[in-house]
Amino acid sequence: MNERLALAMLALLAILSLWIAPWAALNRETGARSAVVLLPERIVDFTGRTEPLAIPGQLTVLIVSVIALLAIAGAAGLRGRSRYWLWLLAGIVLIAITAYGLALFGEVVRAAQQAALEAGARRPPYQRSGMALSAFLSYAVGGLAILLGLRVFAGLGAILDRLFRSVMVPATSIALALLATGVVILVLQPTAVGRGVEITSTWMYLIGRLDTLWYAYQTLFASSLGSLAGFLEALTFTTPLIFTGLAVAFGFRAGLFNIGAPGQMIMGAIGAMLVGVFVPGPRVVILPLAVLAAAIGGGLWGAIPGWLKARFGAHEVINTILMNFIAAALLLFVLSAEQVFTAPALRMVVVVLILAALAVVLSLIRPLRLVLAKAPRLTLALAGVLLLIAMVVSGLPRPGDAPINLDLPIKAPGLDPKSHEIAPEARFTQLPALLGIDLSVSPGVNVVAINYGLPAVPLLALLGFLVGPRVSSQLRRFWPRAAASLGLAAAGYLLFWTLGWTALPTAIPPTKLNGSFIIALLAAALVYLLLWRTKWGYELRAVGVSPKAAEYGGVNIARNIVLAMTIAGALAGLSATHYVMGGALEDYSLRQALPTDDGFTGIAVALLGGTTPGGVILAAFLFGVLQNGGLALNVTFSDLTRDVVSMMLALVVLFIAAKGFLSESVLNARREALLEAERAAGQAPATREVNHG
After folding, report:
1. In the chain, % of residues over pLDDT 90
2. pTM
3. All domains of the chain in start order, with CATH
C-alpha cells in the first residue's frame, strides 16, 4: 500500500507541475537567466530579449499526459494484476508523449537556430534549450510506473522486491537531502533576470523559483552526466572514494568503525612515493611493487589500532583519530617547505625512533615477551610513562641549541611542499596516453577510433558467469557455465562489430582518469569474494553481527579484529595509486595538498552504499558526480558555492542514519506480510515482539 500511495502522490504532483512549472527551457543565458515554456503554449521570458517560438502539439501533450498521470494515480485503488497492467501501459504512454513533445520542441528550436545563422547571426540563438522540471517529473513518474508495473510478470516480482528493499533507505535519504538542499538553494539564489525585466506577479515569481531550482540541479548533475568530459571527471573524483568507502565498509562488516582512512591514505601515499622515487627497476616490477607498498603502508597504519583494540580493548575510533594526527604530522615533517627544525624537536623524534626499535627487538625475545604478556595493561602503561619521560627530558632546551637545517632526500628542491616525482616506471597511464594521445603534442580534445568491443568482452563474460545459474540449472556446472559465458562474450563482440562500435570515432578530452580506477574495481570485487565467498569472510561478518555468538562458535575474535583493520587500512592506502601514481594532483609526486578529506567522505560512501562493494561503487560515483557538479554550480550561479554540495552530502548521511525516517513496517514489509499470512492460517500468535534494534 505504501508504494501505491507514494506513486499516486507523485502522479498528482506531476499533474500540478504541468500547469505551474516550466516544461522546457527555450533559452538559457550566462548568469542562469532563462526563457521558459509552460504547457500549453505559454512562454515566460526572464532574459528580456528572447523571441517567442510557436511550438506545435503542446495541447495534445498536456491532455495525454494528464490522462496518463490520472490513470497511474487511479491504479492505486485497483487490485491484482490489473493495477500492474495499468501502471505499465500508462507509464509507457506518459514517457512516449513527453518524448514526442520534446522532440517537436527540439525541431522548432533547431529550425530557428538554422534560420538565424543563414540570416547572418554570429552565434545561434536559443542556447542550452531543453527539458525543464515538469517534463522531468513526467519522465520520472512514468519510469517508476513501468518499473512497478513489471511485477505483472511473475519472474520479475521477486527481483523487483529485492531491488526495492535494497534501495529504499538510500533512495529515500537522497530524495530528502535533495528536498532540504532545494530549500537552501531557493533561499540563497534569487531568480536571475535580464536588464529591464521585472517580476510583476506571484505567478511569475513562482515560475522563476521553480526554474531556478530545476536549473541548479540540472547544472549539478548534467555537468557530469551530460558530456564525456564531465563523465570522465566524475570518475576521477569517484576513484579514491571507492577505496576509502571500501575501507570503512570493510570495518563496519567486522563491527569496527574505521575512522582512520585519512591517516591510512597518507601512509599509503608515503609508501608508494618511497618505492616510486628510490627503487630502480623495470616497469613490470616497480609498478606492482609501488601498489603493494601503498597497501602495506595503509595496512600497517590500520593494524596498530586493530591490535590495540584486540589486545587492550582500546576503542578503534579514538585510536584511529589519533593515528590520523600522527600521519598528518609525519607528512608535514617530510614535505615541509622550510626544513629547519629546533634541536629539541629533532631529539624527541630520535628518542621515539629509538624506543620504537627497542620495543620491536624486545618483542622478539620470547621469554621476555611471555613475561610482559602476563600483565599487558601494566606493560603498556609503563611503556607510555617511559616514553613520556624520555620525550620531556630530550625536549628540554640545552646550551648551544640552534636551529638545524635537515635536508631530507624526499623533499623536492624549492618552496613547493612536495616530494620528488616518482619514476616513469611507477606511474599509471592516464586515459589519453592509454589511447595513444600525447597531450604535450596535441593538447585539448582529440578524436580517436576506440574498439568498445574489447572492454565489453570481459564484462559480458563475467555477467554470463554470474547470471547463468539463475537462467538454467544446467549452467550450474563449471564447464557449461564457462562455455555459455564465452559464447555470450563472443556474441556481444559480434554485435559491437556489426554496429561499427569496434572502431568508433570518439572525442577524448584531457583527463586525469588513470589505471587506479581499474584497481578500485578489482578491490571491490576482491572484497566481495573475501566477505561473501570465503569461510573467513563469514566469520568476519559473524563477528560484526554478534561477537559473543561468534566467539562461542569458535571464532578467534582478536585475530579477526586485527586482520579486518589491516585490510581496511590497506584499502584506504591504495588511494595513493590514484593521487601519487596516477598523477591526479598536479604531477606524479606526493604533496601536502593530498585530499585526505576523502577518508572522511568514505564514511558517507560506505553508509549510502549499505556497506556492500557494489553499493560503495554506486555511492562513490554519486558523490563523484556531485563533487564535480559543485564546480559547475559555483561558476553558473552567483550566490551558490560548492558548500551546497558539502551540505547535501552531510544531509544524506544524516538521513541514512535515521533510515530515511521510514517506519519499521515499511523497512520490513516482507516480514510483516509473512507474519500476517501466518496469523491468517492460525500459525502465529496475535501479538508479537517487535525488534527495533
Report:
1. 54
2. 0.87
3. 2-152 (1.20.140), 230-339+407-422+514-638 (1.10.3470), 663-693 (no CATH)
